[in-house]
Amino acid sequence: xxxxxxxxxxxxxxxxxxxxxxxxxxxxxxxxxxxxxxxxxxxxxxxxxxxxxxxxxxxxxxxxxxxxxxxxxxxxxxxxxxxxxxxxxxxxxxxxxxxxxxxxxxxxxxxxxxxxxxxxxxxxxxxxxxxxxxxxxxxxxxxxxxxxxxxxxxxxxxxxxxxxxxxxxxxxxxxxxxxxxxxxxxxxxxxxxxxxxxxxxxxx
Length: 204
Fold this sequence. Notes:
single chain; alpha+beta; five-stranded mixed beta sheet; five-stranded antiparallel beta sheet; 5 helices; flat
């Protein structure tokens, strides 16, 4: 028995180990959303006279094709819960206030998702730079040089009153000092953080 076991171990050691390869690019990923064929087949066996219901995979939009060459422009969509601020606009660059720091996005940027913190979002188009103050949100940068930016609140920087910012910062700082509960401290700290970021954006 031991002799047979030793032979098996020796044959396994002599056999070449399987090589696992993983694609490092999205070139092999199909652009069209795949149909859930196994679900459709199972449904037809149970209810052949009824159309199968839609599944999440069937509702997914096809993945936009990745261009072979890097485009000269970045297409930006900037939306708020109540309106679209920028729609399909071609620009040179955007700089977003990510939680990890200011992040510049140029055409051909690697696909990524960044959480936004209170700060300045700047849109660069030639010599023109449009700045917005955003409270929070996310930036979705796609491999096809499209950036979708979603913010909870945003306002053009030139529409912010510096005196009101200073007043709000003073008030929330006082509330933070006198807060007695965790909820009051958290609310006051958020106010201090936002007004501090506003003040920094106006003075930079």
